[in-house]
């Protein structure tokens, strides 16, 4: 295999595929990227079994020549090393030339590196063909799911199922749900009537796909029993699904509401952020007190002192209520809603409460209060 | 004590003094900042014994009113907490009011925090009066010393004296020297004839003073037996000196030179940076080979492969020589020289070599080669 390639395009491809190469690889061959050149162009594949990314670079893009002076073939090269080398080279073009299937020579006019490489047959067979149910989403729709729900999935591996984003399509809706058991986020999108599936995709893989979608208009998602496949313009991402049944979250959303609060999102977020400085004894726990006399956020430390902020603009309906919560949970819910005014619906002191965008009911955030003594 | 103060000016002062407050304090009272208001204005002091910073905020700066509605007094308040609170407040003015010497109320129109505070008498007495020899340096002169030598001091505490910057004034010169025993940096500045002193100032404190000098035109440095005092416009910094005798570095600079190399600094730095990717077996060690046929930088790993770069523009005098060095040492020496062309003077394969700015002889960098087998 041999080719001379535009360095920036090559680096972009190496960076994308490298995202699937783990820092510590369990299987030595997966420290490599698979680099294949055929009549269509260059394919670069990286994998850590859980996640596989294959990206494509054509010979030409529009009128611009990307590769020249080429001979088809394939090889495996240490992903971290080749990516770092191409990043630090500074010529406009880079030449890669595989000699005797064992040495890859990467060079420009003044620099030359000879890297040990491995025959492509050593790389595991990874199936990247779309199978199962397929659904197309625009970049905006996909990003809204990720930015409004992914943060609420668990990052602890004790209950693996909670690290997933539960995707459920039925009756013309796609519902994305995440929960770490102390809070929940749910986003509902309208889709074509005839699609039905349930899949638990690792939430961090959804974030990864969203990041890789930059500059892409849409993604095609294929879901089969064990894996999800995301097809972008030039890149395919395959990820395993999380095994097990997703907890039943249907009954978590309160049906009634005894207290209603509407506030300016930014004013509330700043007040929570400031008072949290004093929530030292109970880490990140602040109190929200509401009554006919006003709404205030407060926190107290026996050692250091206390802080309190009265909200200036609010709408409150209900009797007096004081509720304590993890400020990080409410702040991330507010950030995810990304709107001017947020509404809260409370049932009682110790019942999960609802946080919503006052003008968009496609997304809902649920937070469980913290018990105070 | 009571005052209403421009929030940004207050925050600037708190940030400066907080730099001396350690994350983990050995003596509880030093977790506090000392905040004192007298007829001159507001003084904020932070200390961890090794380093003390006192900064000053006047009642007015030029025509601008900074404080109003004030009553003189003093108190001690947790430095991390008050700085974080004032950073996250968002009104233009902040009011601090000490009630009964035990509670400091920090407030603006909508936020209020009540912090436990301590009587000012609890704070240790720290002498910030200049004594001993005094020398005035411009910001540029001080910064050149720091940027060209501080990096070569040791960061390990095994031999504390090597963490110092050795400052020696005599016969109209101020000489700053740092060494971690594998490399050395020296800067010579012209000063007034009649000043003589020797002092070993912790190199990281010199970096700290340089950072605090932003916006200041000059610094006055006072050196006594045990401490150095740096006086800026509104801030005084006191630091202990490092005890012990500084190693004799006079004989480290080679007197003769058998090989001479002049190269473009940026071309060389990039070549070293790229080839270092392959210096995996011997961490960060690269080879520089020079002969009548050319000059090249190379590195090799038995596992991964090799890299080599020929320099395009150079001047070399001498017979063939191959020398191995820690690439990080040579890169930081080149960065510190901050010039277009650098020169190297070599005595032999295993002798310390000199790196200089081709057009500025006030600074010299010495690097010891690495033995290769």
3D structure, described in words:
The structure is a homodimer of 373-residue chains. The first copy, chain A, is built from 6 helices and 28 strands. Chain A is α+β, with helices and mostly antiparallel strands and 373 residues long. Chain A has 3 domains: 2-122, Roll (DNA Polymerase III, Chain A, domain 2), CATH 3.10.150.10; 135-240, DNA Polymerase III, subunit A, domain 2 (DNA Polymerase III, Chain A, domain 2, Roll); 259-367, Roll (DNA Polymerase III, Chain A, domain 2), CATH 3.10.150. In chain A, a hairpin with a 2-residue loop joins strand 27 and strand 28 (360-367). The termini of chain A are far apart. The model of chain A has no long low-confidence stretch (mean pLDDT 95). Chains A and B meet through helix 2, strand 11, helix 5 and strand 23 of A and helix 2, strand 11, helix 5 and strand 23 of B. Strand 23 (305-310) of chain A pairs antiparallel with strand 11 of chain B, so a sheet runs across the interface.
How do the helices and strands line up, and which of them pair or pack?
The structure is a homodimer of 373-residue chains.
Chain A: E1 2-6, H1 7-18, E2 32-38, E3 41-47, E4 51-58, E5 60-61, E6 64-65, E7 67-71, E8 73-78, H2 79-88, E9 93-99, E10 103-107, E11 111-116, E12 133-138, H3 139-149, E13 164-170, E14 173-179, E15 183-190, E16 197-202, H4 203-212, E17 218-223, E18 227-231, E19 235-240, E20 259-264, H5 265-276, E21 285-291, E22 294-301, E23 305-310, E24 314-317, E25 321-326, H6 327-337, E26 341-346, E27 353-357, E28 360-367
Antiparallel strand pairs in A: 1-7, 1-9, 2-3, 2-8, 3-4, 4-19, 5-6, 9-10, 10-11, 12-17, 13-14, 13-16, 14-15, 15-28, 17-18, 18-19, 20-24, 20-26, 21-22, 21-25, 22-23, 26-27, 27-28
Helix pairs in contact in A: 1-2, 3-4, 5-6
